[in-house]
Amino acid sequence: MSGTVVTMRETLRSISSLAELALWRDGGQRQARRNAWAAMVDDARRARERAEVAAAVDHLNWRDGSHPERLPG
Q1: pLDDT tens-digit map of 10-67
Q2: Are 12 and 4 in contact (CB under 8 A)?
Q3: Is 6 helix (H, G, I), strand (E, B) or coil?
């Protein structure tokens, strides 16, 4: 009799874990979206910093009187 109870308990455990997987898990899509969003935020921050540095260097070059020709594009 105890063997049947153990088997039933294991079956219920596997059914509940499958139900949890089906209902609560998203296959990692939510975490992938979080990672993508974080990467976009970091890329935007780095792009902003690069633009600020380029503007500061241009400002210093113009202030010093050296006007380097910049290639278009």
Answers
A1: 887 877 776 666 666 677 788 899 999 999 999 999 999 999 999 999 988 887 766 5
A2: no
A3: helix
- Token couple for 32: 């992938």
Element (H, E) at 24: helix 2-24
Kindly report the backbone phi and psi dihedral angles of residue 26, in degrees, each rounded to the nearest multiple of 5, phi listed first.
-115, 20
Distance separating alpha carbons of residues 73 and 60, to the nearest angstrom:
21
Give the residue carrying structure tokens 């400002």. Answer: 59
Measure the CA angle with vertex 39, ends 53 and 57; round to 5°.
Answer: 5
Within 13 A of 27's CA, how many CA atoms are on the CB side? Answer: 2
Q: Estimate to the nearest angstrom the gap between the alpha carbon of 38 and the chain centroid.
A: 4
CB under 8 Å to 2, separation ≥6 — which residues?
none
